[in-house]
Amino acid sequence: LAGAGLAVAGCREVAGQLLSSRLPLPRLFTVPLPIPEVARPVRPGRYEVTQRVAKAEIVPGTRTEVWGYGGTFPGPTFELRRGSAATIAVRNELPVPTSTHLHGGVNPPDSDGYPTDLVVPPGHHAHHGGHPGEVLHQGVKDYHYPVDQRAATLWYHDHRMDFTAPQVWRGLAGFALVRDAEEDALPLPGGERELPLLICDRAFEEDGSFRYPAAHDGAYMEGVEGDVILVNGAPWPVAEVSATRHRLRLLNASNARRYRLRLAPGGRFTQIGSDSGLLAAPVAHEEIPISPGERYDVVVDFSAYPVGSAVTLVDALSEGPVMRFVVARRAADDSAVPARLSRPPDRPPAVATRRFDFRRTEDVWTINGHPYRPGVPLARPRLGTAEVWRLTSDFHHPVHVHLAHFQVLARNGKPPAATDAGWKDTVDVRPYEVVDVLARFDGHRGRYMLHCHNLEHEDMAMMADFEVI
Ligand code: C2O
Ligand code: CU
Locate the Plastocyanin-like domain: which residues (predicted)? Predict the structure, then answer.
C-alpha cells in the first residue's frame, strides 16, 4: 500500500487545475513584502471589522477588486492572548453572505463559522433555496472567542456553504496570532524579526481583476491553482532582513496548491511550532511540505549567509520561486532557539477508532460516501476524550478538523514524517494513503465540521459534521 501511494503521489503531485493569467506576469522580487496591519480593539477585548469591496494594486500598474476583512487582502492580524477572551464583530458589506471561521481556534459552535450560520449584507433577504437550518444575521455578527488555548499561528477565513473557494480567492483571509506566557519566556526572534507569511496563488484577468472559473465548473473540480504566487497579497515579493534569526510563520492559504518550501542557495528551517502551537523541541528541515490550511512556525538564521546575498524561498514542487530575502546588513542578535521550547499536552489514550474515507463519488467529493449534509453528524465523540481517526483518500486531501487538535500517529502504518510533528489541525492525506491521527475533543460541546481544505473540494461537498457530546 505504501509503495502504491508513493507511486501515485509521484504522478499526481499537482492537486488542482492551473488557471493562467491574461496579463503580463509581474517581475520577480520587485514588490516589497507587505506586513498586514495589526487590528486595534475598539475597547479591551472587542474588535470590529467590516468585510468590504476595495481596490488593491497587486500586480504593479493594475487595480484588483478584492473582498477583504477591513477592505484589505490579507485582512488585519488579530493579536490574541491566552486567557483574554475576545469578541470580533464582523460586519458584512459585501454583495454576498459570509461566515467567518477562526481556523485552529477552540471556540463555541455558534462562533465557529458554521457554513449556514451566515452574516448577510444589510437589505439582503432570505432567498428561497436556502439551506435547512440556515441562520441569517442581518449585517453583523459577534464572534466570541474564549482564547483558552496555547500560543499558535491561527488564521481566519470565509466559510460560506458552497462558496468558500471563490470568496477566499477574492481575499477573505487573514492571520490571528495567539500568544501566551510560556512563549513570552522564550528568547525567540520577535518584533520586526517575526514575519507572518500568508502564501497563496492567484490568476488575473487582463484588467487586473482576479480570474476564477465560473461557479462549479466541472473542469476545476480538482481545485483551482493560479500562476502567480502571492505572499501577504504581493506577487513574489522581496524583504530586506538583517543577518540575524527571523521567525517566519508560514501559512498556506491557497485554495488547492501545495508547496514544498526550500531555501536557495540552500539552508535550513528550524521548526519551532506546528498548526496548534510550539513543539516540545525544535526540529530542523531542509524542506517543508505545506498543504492548504497548514502552518509551520520556523526560524531561519540569516547570519549563515554573507551580507548582500539573496536567499530565495522556493517551491520545489513547481520548481518556482515564492519570495526573496535580501540579507542587507549585520546586526546584533540576542535571540536563540532553546533546545526545550514548551510542554505540549501529552497524548491521551484513545477511547474509540473511527474511519473517514475521502473519495470522489461520481461527480462530487465525499466523506464515507456522503456529500455534505449539514446537521447530520458522522461521529459523536465525547467531550474530554481522544479518538483515533483513520483518514483514507483517493487523491491529495488536506484534512482539517474543527475544534479538535490532533497528532499524526502513522502514515500507511509507518511512523510519520519529521514535518508531521506536534499538535495539528490539518494534515495532508496523500493519494491512497492511510493516515492515523489521535484527536482530542476539548473545550466545547456541539456541532463542528471536518472537511477537505482544498477549498474547491470543500465546496463540492467534501465536508461532514461531527458532534461533541
Ligand atoms: Cu480553514 Cu473549516 O477551515
Ligand atoms: Cu480534497
Answer: 56-182, 355-468
Q: Which atom, in ligand 1's list, is nearest to the CA of 113?
A: 2
Q: Whose CA is nearest to atom 1 of ligand 1?
A: 103
Distance of CA 426 from the midpoint of ligand 1 (Å): 9
ipTM field: 0.97
Residue 2: inside a domain, yes or no? no
Cα of 150 from ligand 1 centre, angstroms: 19
**Spatial distance between the Cα atoms of 339 and 349, rounded to a whole number of angstroms:** 27
pTM of the model: 0.96
- 253 and 147 in a common domain: no
**Which residues contact ligand 1 via a Cβ below 6 A?**
101, 103, 157, 159, 293, 400, 402, 449, 451, 453
37/173 same-domain check: yes
Looking at 295, 329, 363, the residue that finishes a domain is: 329
- Residue having the nearest C-alpha atom to atom 3 of ligand 1: 103
Q: Are residues 196 and 172 in the same domain?
A: no
Q: Which ligand has its closest atom nearest to the C-alpha of 161?
A: 1
Ligand 1 atom with the shortest distance to the CA of 293: 1
Atom of ligand 1 nearest to the CA of 402: 2
pLDDT digits over 133-172, tens only?
899 999 999 999 999 999 999 999 999 999 999 999 999 9
Q: Are 288 and 252 in contact (CB under 8 A)?
A: no
Residue 216 falls within a domain, yes or no? yes
Domain ranges, residue 462: 353-468
Query: Rounded to whole angstroms, how far apart are CA atoms 428 and 135?
Result: 31
CA distances to 61, 97, 132, 141, 283 from 135, rounded to whole Å, are: 42, 11, 9, 11, 44
Sheet containing 288-290, strands listed edge to edge, beginning at the edge strand earlier in sequence: 238-242, 320-329, 310-315, 259-264, 288-290
CA 186 to chain centre: 25
Whether residue 336 is contained in a domain is answered as: no
5 belongs to a structural domain: no
Q: Which ligand has the minimum distance to the alpha carbon of residue 173?
A: 1
**Domain boundary, last residue among 129, 146, 181:** 181
